[in-house]
Design brief:
The chain is mainly α. 81% of the residues lie in helices and 0% in strands. It has ten helices and no strands. It has helices at residues 2-15, 19-32, 39-48, 50-63, 67-77, 79-108, 116-140, 149-165, 170-183, 191-215. The radius of gyration is 17 Å and the shape is elongated.
């Protein structure tokens, strides 16, 4: 699996297709967050904006290989393992960017009534919840479930929106916890949202890998 992850990461970095989701994330944070604003509300936006970015990143990773190269990798390592490596790669890189953003927002935001440790913990858990929910969306709107690029992108946008606003979504729960805490202010780390997102992402990844092994 380590070799597969290095392979997928190398493909992603060399292709420079990661630039578009990264620039989108930076643009949203640059427009939506100001230095000195209440830290918990800013962290809510930091986490929520990562959901569509992660879904986009996952879709990029599972579609970036040419068919011939994908068949060679699948023959050597198995289609399920190769697909899992693409899903993990597409999830980890946005998670790292989100973690850096949380630390930057915590350092520059208004932390009155909230310690830096409490704010960072809540922010990192919210980022984890939103990124993994986005990864689940990306896994379901890409191959092998949705092959046509136009339909895949449309499903990605719709799925990301629903994941942000639907009751019961781990991402919505995490964002609500931070936004509500900004009014108090009390940092309530969204542990249950993060745990739910881990379970959701694991189930969706398992479904995608099994479907890939059977359908491709």
């Amino acid at each position: 699996m380590t070799a597969l992850l290095r392979y997928q990461t190398g493909l992603l970095l060399r292709s420079q297709r990661w630039l578009a989701p990264l620039l989108l994330y930076v643009a949203v944070l640059g427009v939506g967050i100001s230095v000195g604003e209440p830290v918990l509300g800013a962290l809510g936006l930091t986490a929520g904006a990562l959901l569509p970015v992660t879904a986009w990143s996952v879709r990029i990773c599972v579609t970036q290989e040419p068919p011939a190269a994908r068949n060679v990798v699948a023959a050597a390592a198995g289609r399920g393992r190769a697909h899992l490596a693409a899903l993990v790669t597409g999830t980890v890189l946005p998670l790292l960017v989100g973690g850096v953003a949380v630390l930057a927002v915590t350092a520059t935001g208004d932390r009155r009534g909230v310690t830096a440790l409490a704010a960072a913990t809540a922010g990192l858990l919210a980022v984890l919840a939103c990124a993994l929910t986005g990864a689940a969306v990306g896994a379901l709107v890409s191959r092998p479930f949705v092959r046509a690029p136009g339909w895949s992108l449309s499903a990605l946008v719709l799925g990301s929106l629903l994941a942000l606003v639907t009751t019961g979504s781990p991402a919505k729960h995490a964002m609500t916890a931070l936004v509500t805490g900004a009014r108090t202010p009390i940092a309530d780390p969204p542990w249950f949202a993060a745990a739910g997102a881990v379970l959701l992402a694991a189930v969706c990844a398992a479904l995608a890998c099994r479907a890939t092994a059977r359908l491709e």
